[in-house]
Write a structure and sequence with these properties.
Beta Polymerase, domain 2, rod-shaped, cell membrane, membrane, CorA_TM1_TM2
C-alpha cells in the first residue's frame, strides 16, 4: 500500500500517482514528493531505495520495528524514527505507532509499521497550511513532527486527567476503591514510563533538525520548528511530573490502606475487650464451687448487672477515645 503526493512550486500538483514515476517527478528541481508506504515488501522497498540513492542502513532501520526515536545523518539524506501515541479508551493504556522517515532534498518518505497512525489527519494538517508548501521537504516534515508532538501532548493531558480522577478515589467513603486505585496507578505508571521513552528522545531529534549545518530547515520555517521544540520540552517536563505524581498516589494509597487497617484493628480490639467482660463474669459464676450468691436469684441479678455496667463503661470509654 502506497500513497503519493507531488508539490510543484509550492502547490499541490498531483496525488496518488504510481511509485515508479517518482524518479521522473524528481527530475524537476521545483518539485517535492511525499511517498508513504505501509509495511512495504523488502524487495520493493530496496528497489525504491536504490532508485533514490538511500543508504542500506537507513533502509534496514526503516523496515525493522522497535527502533528508538532518533535522527541518523547520511551524506545525501537523513533518517528519523518517531512514535505517534494515543491513549486507549480505558484512559490508562497507550497505543504507539512507529513511523520511519527518510528525508532527501526533494522527497519525504514515510514507512508505517502499523495502521494505527492517523495518516488522514496528517494530510489535513498539510492542507491547512498551503502557504508554507513552498518550503518543500521542511514544510512536510514540520507538519509531520507537529502532528506527532501534538499527539504526545494530548496523551500527557489525558493521563493527567486520569490521575486526577484517581486522586478523588483515594479518599472515597467506605474504602472500596483501594484495589481500583492500586491497579490503575500501576498501569498509569507503566504507560508514563513508555511515554517517557518516546517523548524524551524527541528533544534531541527536533533540536538536531534545527542545526544550520544539516540544511534541513530554512530561515522562515525556523520559528515553526522552535514552536514544535517548545511543545516537546513541555510534554517531557509534564511526563516527568506525572511520574512523580503517580508515585505519590501509590504511596498515599498504601498509607490510606494502612490507616484504614489500623482503624479496623482498633474497632475489633475494642469490641473484643467489651465481649471479654461478660465472658469472664459468666465463666466465674459458671464454676462448680460455691461462691457469693450461689444457688440464689441475687447472684444472677448481681452478675447480670456487673456485665451490663462494665460493658457500657468500656463502650463509652472507647467511644470517647475514638476507638469505635
Amino acid at each position: 500500500m502506497a500513497r503519493t503526493r507531488l508539490y510543484r512550486d509550492g502547490s499541490l500538483a498531483e496525488e496518488d500517482f504510481p511509485v515508479r514515476d517518482i524518479s521522473r517527478c524528481l527530475e524537476d528541481p521545483s518539485t517535492t514528493v511525499w511517498l508513504d508506504l505501509y509495511r512495504p515488501d523488502r524487495a520493493e522497498f530496496t528497489a525504491v531505495g536504490e532508485e533514490l540513492g538511500l543508504h542500506e542502513l537507513a533502509l534496514e532501520d526503516a523496515l525493522h520495528e522497535g527502533q528508538r526515536a532518533k535522527l541518523d545523518n547520511y551524506r545525501t539524506h537523513h533518517f528519523l524514527s518517531v512514535y505517534a501515541v494515543a491513549v486507549d479508551p480505558d484512559g490508562v493504556g497507550l497505543t504507539m505507532s512507529e513511523l520511519a522517515v527518510i528525508l532527501t532534498p526533494q522527497a519525504l518518505i514515510t514507512v508505517r509499521k502499523d495502521a494505527a497512525f492517523a495518516l488522514d489527519e496528517l494530510v489535513a494538517r498539510w492542507d491547512r497550511t498551503p502557504a508554507l508548501a513552498a518550503h518543500g521537504v521542511a514544510f512536510l516534515l514540520h507538519g509531520l513532527l507537529d502532528h506527532v508532538v501534538d499527539g504526545h501532548f494530548a496523551a500527557v493531558r489525558q493521563l493527567d486527567e486520569r490521575i486526577e480522577e484517581l486522586d478523588a478515589l483515594l479518599f472515597a467513603e467506605g474504602g472500596r476503591q483501594i484495589q481500583t486505585v492500586q491497579r490503575q496507578s500501576y498501569a498509569l505508571r507503566k504507560s508514563l514510563v513508555r511515554l517517557r521513552r518516546v517523548v524524551l528522545p524527541m528533544r534531541e531529534v527536533v533540536n538536531a533538525l534545527m542545526r544550520l549545518d544539516l540544511d534541513v530547515v530554512d530561515g522562515p520555517l525556523m520559528p515553526y520548528y522552535r514552536d514544535v521544540y517548545d511543545h516537546v520540552l513541555r510534554a517531557g517536563e509534564w511526563t516527568e511530573s506525572l511520574r512523580d505524581l503517580v508515585a505519590s498516589v501509590m504511596e498515599t494509597n498504601l498509607s490510606v490502606q494502612a490507616n484504614r487497617m489500623n482503624l479496623i484493628m482498633k474497632k475489633v480490639t475494642s469490641w473484643a475487650a467489651i465481649i471479654a467482660v461478660p465472658t469472664a463474669i459468666t465463666g466465674f459464676y459458671g464454676q462448680n464451687l460455691p461462691y457469693p450468691g450461689f444457688a440464689h436469684q441475687s447472684g444472677f441479678i448481681v452478675s447480670s448487672a456487673v456485665i451490663v455496667v462494665a460493658s457500657l463503661t468500656l463502650y463509652f470509654v472507647f467511644k470517647n477515645g475514638d476507638w469505635l
